Amino acid sequence: MQSDQTPELSIVIPIRNEEKNLPKLYEELTAALTAFGRPYEILLIDDGSTDESGKILADMAAHDWRIRVIRFRRNFGQTAGFSAGFAYARGRLIITADGDLQNDPADIPAMVRKLEGSDGQPYDIVCGWRKDRKDKWLTRRLPSMLANALISKATGVRLHDYGCSLKVFRAEVVKPLRLYGEMHRFIPAIASEMGTDITEVVVNHRPRIHGTSKYGLSRTVRVVLDLLTVKFLLRYATRPLHIFGLLGLTTGALGLLITAYLGFVRLVLGHGIGDRPLLLLGVLLVFSGLQFMTIGLLAEIQARTYHESQDKPTYVVREIFESSPPPASAHHDRPLEHVGR
Predict the structure, then answer these.
(1) Do 14 and 80 fall within a single domain?
(2) Residue 117 belongs to some domain of the structure
(3) Which positions ≥6 away from 67 have C-beta within 8 Å?
(4) In this structure, are residues 85 and 171 in contact, taking their beta carbons and an 8 Å threshold?
(5) Do 45 and 150 form a contact (C-beta atoms < 8 A)?
(6) Same domain as 146, residue 79
(7) Which pLDDT tens digit goes with each residue over 63-91?
(8) Which of 94, 223, 258, 341 has the fewest CB atoms within 10 Å, measured from its CB?
(9) Do residues 156 and 255 both lie within one domain?
(10) Same structural domain for residues 225 and 279?
(11) How many structural domains are present in the chain?
(12) Which domain covers residue 268, as residue numbers?
């Protein structure tokens, strides 16, 4: 039986057209979390579903006070869903997962204990590793392996499975993060800037039974583009002039050397230079160097604006469904048999 105390665990799950999976998801989550014995809440973010998911979620929230449903006005993406969940979460530990039943809620207790130091070392983030992944090899597993290797190499945070949504975070680690695009998979790398302790554990991965995957090969390109952003944020977010200034000084200096050489050829040796392509290259490099320096200075101003401006969420909430907790003496763990029927 759960009491009406502040939840210790906040489970954040974005939902997009998962009407057939929701009843089973609710059953498995409540069974695993109730057996674990920690006070919890489940935040389900309806990311613009066009099926009956919204109705089922509202029904869940009406009959179980531990369920909180956040409905977006339209589809904003999984990153925005996690970001909204982080903002509304009340627990000291935040757990993320997918709503397609491929993540196993039974893995949550072991991951929480791992974060709290069951092996003698407490952590800030525990990531799931789908070692025996139940997805197609060519279209899902191979691109994922390549992306994981690339991300690990570029960020210095080496994980086997960045794409696994099943993760456990300390709230103070993820609540300050501002996520854009599809950067939810880079949260461990972004959080590493704060000096966090990160580990991973092997988790159970199950084949999708209902619905279709929201991801395909096209996401590989988006991952690479987002990786460039993350790499820049990790190294140069507070000092962009260091990268643009270096590029500007390098290209500008090379351009000056070329134009100085051509000046020597024209003024000392008396040879014509007007028809030489090298002259155009030298002028181009000089102006490119000035442009890089200008971009760097503008980026410095924007970096200060970014860090000093007010928070601006990446989503728009339509409404929030939740019910008031019953008296502490009431029994709250009865199954929600009618949900989804």
Answers:
(1) yes
(2) yes
(3) 26, 41, 42, 44, 57, 60, 61, 322
(4) no
(5) no
(6) yes
(7) 999 999 999 999 999 999 999 999 999 99
(8) 341
(9) no
(10) no
(11) 2
(12) 241-306
Return the bridge partners of 125, or none.
169, 198
Per-residue pLDDT for 216 more than 70? no
Q: Do the Cβ atoms of 72 and 317 come closer than 8 Å?
A: yes
Q: Are 88 and 14 in contact (CB under 8 A)?
A: no
Q: Give the full edge-to-edge strand order of the sheet including 93-96.
A: 198-202, 125-129, 167-170, 93-96, 9-15, 40-46, 67-72, 317-321
pLDDT at 53 over 80: yes
Q: Which helix (H) or strand (E) holds 174?
A: helix 171-174
Q: Over the range 7-16, which residues count as b (16 or more CB within 10 Å of their CB) and which as e?
A: bbbbbbbbbb
Residue 255: per-residue pLDDT:
94
Does one domain contain both 68 and 22? yes
Q: The tokens of 341 are what? A: 């029927």
Locus of tokens 């982080």: 86
Answer whether 325's CB lies under 8 Å from 4's CB.
yes
**Statement to judge: residues 144 and 183 lie in one domain:** yes
* Domain end among 237, 254, 272: 237
